[in-house]
């Protein structure tokens, strides 16, 4: 089987993309690579916690909270949906991907019936499918002969459209009713406890065959048209007249002078209320195909100016859409009888051409005789980066070149992922292309009022589409395959440019129209399986349509695809160097791939050339040579002594082996002999959790791990016997401790990629857990890890145990209360009349470079108190803990989240902590000064937190302004009291002031109803590009009750810590004034310092229960920093 690639795909055009589904690879995995994500650029903006936490409702109705803590530590916490207690969850992290799979969905994912992307949490968040952004789950469901609307689906499901090309329907299900939908979809397996799903039948609801995520989609001529040679075609009388062409994009602005009368049909498949183009991308593409150039006196004329257009608007006015809308647009366009269709969209990740969009394209092209011309993608110079639907077999896939014919840096290179087939097949201009501008669009590079300049393979594709329209005028009865082959074979190669970058070369429509000797095969894709002991041959058929015989000189150009080095001599040869093609007949030549030579690479590409007087025929090809590869067989034996031959017994799904050097994962297939994967020579790791059914008893889970499998020169078989595993035990002092949750498994790093194999059991489960001991692992991160939450009369235990470098021979972990840290926690509110509740998330960040966190959540009423005992270390190393609190009225109505920075605790340490502590006042949470840009993040309503901050999710009811001055002059103002950003600031040092005012009327708080803050500081752009600085902030601390109130009628002490930039500088001039009449009158309070330098004030509250206290705090430091903050009704009186 092939390399596992989990991708969340988006469609774009101009800068490209459209979601596809990673399919099983057809070629040996030694040919496959996964490009790691580039390091994130350092931003000039302050940290936005909204990007650090997200909740995703799964198709099963379960929810997953994904948190990214400082340092990139990721924690994914699954939460049971309604009626789903007892469901287990497996978690697999691979790099930036993190998959959380409920146990009753795992068999369906393993069998390919359920799309894995439905459970890839980070991808769902990136795609905008988290709960904060959508209340629906979009799906594509393939059914057996029936439309989904006829399949008795439950309420909450809306069928959007039929997709006959893939035998499917697009629908959405409401997240609020996802659990009900899952019960219908999964049938008896739904909500079944793990012991019921092990070895169960892997079926879906009657009539349903497969379920995919309906992924998001987004959009990716000055010298360009003459560069292709189109004017030569015009002189011959070919202008596309009588040819109908489809543009499947963001619509077309048919009011543009260049497109007057060109659009003969249009349909809107997007969510936009209008069919016209208000984005601009589709109009630009359309005019490149058939623009008249009327608005430029002919300068920006399209390729086929007399062709007519049909417009399928599949992207809305922001350039967003879904896979199903794209497929529906393709189907409709083909039904209009178009000869050629342009798709300047594609996935942001490479695919192997088996995803739904590529599948639909192949079927529509064959059934409707439509040639689809598709952009290759904009993923840059690495190999195997062709995106969907350009990865489809039937697509004519187009790379981009610049004005000199060189491949554009951004243009995706081939070959196709999986089988290493030749892609792209052709190239065309795609850099700095000037074409029509939609009237209601706002392009980044306008060219006058009527045009815009864009770059991308999106711009290259319509040049080829126009060229195909010219050819279709000449050959109206030709099939898509014939048109495709002729355009490819007559392309013009540029010396030094590879076939995996440009295919046959740059489009040459003039030659395509006039050359009468051509080849019937557009391209060749060859593959040699290890051990390269057989010759591979293919036939090329040359057709001569002239009245005279033609003599062709056959040549071969071949080189390494990576690096472009020379190929071994004799690797590719032809059966004849001279070929006579009789008049009005054909002749064949044999292409031979000889593996007997010493190979230097795994992928080669080149061109077979056939030349003669006035004849130049190109046949681009790829040759994939599987690197030295062997089978790895895992014989996993369960606790009953039975060999595992079903993937339904394994979690996570699918089972994989991982390359220790590259981090690549290779999927295992189930066979009668065990689990088998074909892998390149190298060193691998394997880990899985085997479920052993025990009749009426709870299922037992066994962690089986082989952290080092050497594959050197022969196939390997590894036997892992669960009967040799050891029972995992936890012992604490509390005799009545019962489990809330258990997470256990392994955490590794492979080639720099975090990789986890984890199982989560929630609730008071009694499932026995076992782990097979391993030998010691050195030289990389390998951890056996377990997190357990136990409830007892002494409090709640949060325990993170484990071992570095091995699964131990005795996985029994005993801890004494005296060796644990203890936190006495008070959960307060801002005095709201609402019935609030909270979700407290506790996360332990494992040591090392795995950037992995383990943790859980606790539902609790507000206000309330808890006691937690927790482990301060993991395998002898300090263990940072992060605590966050969501405050809400319902699951869907979260008002704010309180974030706390990671803290390391000592054994025996006792900590008192209050969440949402009074007093409430404004603060600056973040400030960054980069080269020319200053960015601020403020909170008008902030509790007095040390080492944390509060993020308000719904700012409705908070109205105000923010103003920045430089040396006394206003440089920026905003009606947003939360953020302010200004560019164009000099690098040199200057004196700045920031003023923020706001009125607050939110339902979850009755404090800080009116605030203003004034900060003064000196700043210059730092030499290292960006630096985050914390401005002065004041906290007001006291012994408040759970509703943020202090006792009335008595003395009260207020702590006044001043938070300083970087902890440096000396604080001076701290003052406090208080008001009991909402700021009409103020009284200054005495402020002093204790022996430790802590500032505090002693005040006496009036005897006014139910009243409020307003505060004004001022401070300055010896570095020029000043602050004055005023908060009306900062806290209450009891």
From TrEMBL:
Query: Which ranges does the record mark as transmembrane?
Result: none
* Domain Peptidase S8/S53 stretches: 240-500
Report keywords, A-Z. Answer: Hydrolase, Protease, Serine protease, Signal
For this protein, the record's Gene3D superfamilies field holds: Peptidase S8/S53 domain (3.40.50.200)
Source taxon at top rank: Bacteria
Q: Which Pfam family, just one, is annotated for this protein?
A: Peptidase_S8
Q: Which residues form the active site?
A: 249, 281, 458
- Residue span of the signal peptide, if any? 1-26
Provide a GO biological process annotation: proteolysis
Q: Which GO terms describe its molecular function?
A: serine-type endopeptidase activity
Protein family according to the UniProt entry: Belongs to the peptidase S8 family.
Record protein name field: Subtilisin family serine protease
Q: Which organism is it from?
A: Actinopolymorpha pittospori
């Amino acid at each position: 089987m092939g390399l596992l690639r989990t991708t969340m795909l988006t469609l774009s055009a101009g800068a490209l993309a459209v979601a596809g589904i990673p399919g099983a690879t057809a070629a040996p995995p030694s040919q496959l690579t996964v490009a790691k994500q580039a390091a994130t650029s350092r931003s000039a903006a302050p940290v936005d916690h909204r990007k650090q936490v997200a909740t995703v409702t799964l198709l099963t109705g379960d929810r997953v909270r994904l948190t990214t803590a400082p340092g990139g530590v990721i924690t994914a916490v699954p939460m049971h949906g309604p009626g789903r207690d007892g469901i287990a969850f497996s978690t697999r992290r691979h790099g930036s991907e993190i998959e959380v799979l409920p146990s009753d969905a795992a068999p369906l994912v393993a069998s390919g019936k359920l799309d894995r992307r439905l459970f890839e949490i980070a991808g769902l968040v990136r795609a905008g499918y988290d709960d904060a952004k959508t209340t629906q789950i979009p799906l594509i469901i393939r059914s057996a002969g029936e439309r989904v609307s006829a399949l008795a689906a439950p309420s909450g499901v809306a069928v959007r459209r039929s997709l006959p090309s893939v035998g499917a329907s697009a629908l959405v299900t409401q997240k609020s009713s996802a659990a009900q939908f899952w019960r219908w979809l999964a049938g008896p397996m739904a909500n079944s406890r793990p012991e019921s799903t092990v070895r169960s039948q892997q079926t879906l609801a009657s009539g349903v065959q497969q379920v995919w995520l309906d992924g998001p989609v987004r959009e990716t001529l000055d010298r360009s048209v003459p560069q292709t040679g189109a004017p030569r075609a015009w002189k011959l009388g070919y202008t596309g007249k009588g040819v109908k062409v489809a543009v499947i994009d963001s619509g077309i602005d048919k009011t543009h002078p260049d497109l007057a009368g060109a659009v003969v049909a249009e349909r809107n498949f997007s969510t936009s209320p209008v069919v016209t183009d208000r984005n601009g991308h589709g109009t630009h593409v359309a005019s490149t195909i058939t623009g008249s150039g009327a608005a430029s006196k002919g300068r920006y004329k399209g390729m086929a100016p007399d062709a007519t257009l049909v417009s399928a608007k599949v992207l809305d006015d922001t350039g967003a859409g879904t896979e199903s809308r794209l497929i529906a647009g393709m189907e409709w366009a083909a039904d209009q009888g178009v000869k050629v269709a342009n798709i300047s969209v594609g996935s942001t990740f490479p695919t192997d051409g088996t995803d739904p969009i590529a599948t639909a394209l192949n079927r529509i092209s064959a059934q409707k005789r439509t040639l689809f011309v598709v952009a290759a993608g904009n993923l840059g110079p690495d190999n195997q980066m062709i995106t969907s639907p350009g990865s489809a077999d039937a697509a004519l896939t187009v790379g981009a070149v610049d004005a000199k014919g060189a491949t554009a840096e951004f243009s995706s290179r081939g070959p196709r992922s999986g089988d290493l087939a030749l892609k792209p097949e052709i190239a065309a201009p795609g850099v700095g292309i000037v074409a029509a501008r939609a009237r209601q669009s706002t392009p980044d590079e306008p060219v006058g009022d009527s045009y815009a300049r864009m770059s991308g393979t999106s711009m290259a594709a319509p040049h080829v589409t126009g060229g195909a329209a010219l050819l279709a005028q000449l050959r109206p009865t030709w099939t898509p395959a014939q048109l495709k082959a002729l355009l490819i074979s007559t392309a013009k190669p540029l010396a030094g440019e590879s076939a995996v970058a440009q295919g046959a070369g740059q489009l040459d429509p003039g030659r395509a129209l006039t050359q009468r000797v051509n080849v019937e095969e557009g391209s060749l894709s060859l593959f040699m399986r290890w051990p390269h002991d057989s010759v591979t041959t293919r036939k090329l058929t040359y057709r001569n349509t002239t009245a005279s015989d033609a003599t062709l000189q056959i040549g071969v150009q071949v080189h390494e695809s990576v690096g472009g080095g020379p190929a071994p001599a004799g690797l590719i040869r032809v059966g004849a160097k001279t070929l006579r093609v009789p008049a009005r007949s054909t002749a064949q030549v044999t292409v031979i791939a000889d593996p007997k030579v010493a190979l230097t690479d795994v992928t080669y590409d080149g061109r077979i050339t056939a030349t003669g007087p006035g004849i130049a025929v190109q046949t681009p090809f790829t040759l994939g040579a599987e690197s030295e590869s062997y089978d790895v067989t895992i014989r996993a034996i369960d606790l009953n002594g039975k060999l595992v031959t079903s993937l339904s017994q394994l979690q996570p799904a699918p089972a994989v082996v991982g390359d220790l050097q590259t981090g690549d994962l290779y999927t295992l297939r189930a066979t009668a002999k065990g689990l088998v994967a074909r892998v390149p020579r190298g060193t691998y790791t394997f880990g899985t959790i085997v479920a052993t059914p025990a009749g009426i008893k709870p299922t037992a889970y066994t962690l089986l791990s082989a952290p080092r499998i050497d594959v050197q020169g022969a196939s390997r078989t590894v036997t892992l016997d669960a009967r040799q595993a050891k029972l995992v035990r936890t012992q604490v002092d509390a005799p009545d401790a019962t489990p809330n949750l258990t997470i256990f498994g392994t955490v590794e790093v492979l080639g720099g990629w975090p990789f986890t194999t984890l199982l989560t059991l929630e609730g008071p489960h009694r499932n026995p857990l076992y782990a097979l001991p391993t030998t010691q692992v050195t030289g990389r991160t390998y951890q056996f890890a377990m997190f357990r939450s136990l409830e007892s009369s002494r409090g709640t235990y949060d325990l993170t145990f484990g071992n570095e470098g091995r699964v131990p021979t005795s996985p029994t972990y005993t801890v004494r209360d005296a060796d644990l840290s203890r936190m006495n926690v008070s959960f307060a509110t801002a005095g709201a009349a609402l019935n609030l509740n909270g979700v407290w998330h506790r996360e332990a960040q494992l040591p090392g470079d795995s950037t992995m966190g383990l943790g859980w959540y606790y539902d609790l009423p507000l206000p309330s108190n808890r006691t937690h005992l927790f482990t301060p270390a993991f395998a002898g190393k300090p263990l940072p803990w992060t605590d966050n609190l969501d405050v809400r009225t319902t699951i869907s109505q979260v008002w704010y989240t309180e974030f706390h920075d990671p803290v390391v605790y000592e054994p025996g340490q006792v900590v008192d902590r209050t969440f949402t502590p009074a007093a409430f006042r404004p603060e600056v949470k973040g400030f960054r000064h980069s080269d020319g840009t200053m960015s601020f993040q403020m909170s008008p309503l902030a509790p007095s937190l040390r080492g944390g901050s509060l993020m308000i999710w719904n700012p409705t009811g908070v109205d105000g302004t923010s103003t920045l001055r430089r040396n006394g002059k206003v440089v920026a103002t905003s009606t947003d009291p939360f953020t302010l950003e200004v560019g164009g600031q000099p690098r040199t040092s200057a004196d700045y002031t920031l003023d923020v005012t706001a009125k607050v009327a939110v339902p979850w708080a009755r404090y800080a109803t009116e605030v203003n803050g004034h900060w003064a500081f000196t700043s210059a752009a730092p030499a290292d590009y960006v630096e985050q600085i914390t401005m002065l902030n004041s906290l007001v601390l006291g012994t408040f009750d759970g509703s943020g109130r202090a006792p009335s009628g008595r003395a009260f002490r207020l702590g006044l810590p001043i938070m300083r930039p970087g902890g440096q500088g000396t604080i001076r001039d701290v003052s406090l004034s208080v008001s009991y009449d909402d700021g009409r009158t103020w009284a200054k309070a005495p402020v002093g310092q204790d022996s430790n330098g802590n500032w505090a004030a002693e005040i006496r509250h009036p005897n006014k229960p139910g009243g409020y206290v307003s505060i004004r705090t001022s401070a300055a430091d010896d570095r020029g920093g000043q602050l004055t903050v005023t908060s009306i009704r900062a806290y209450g009186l009891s």
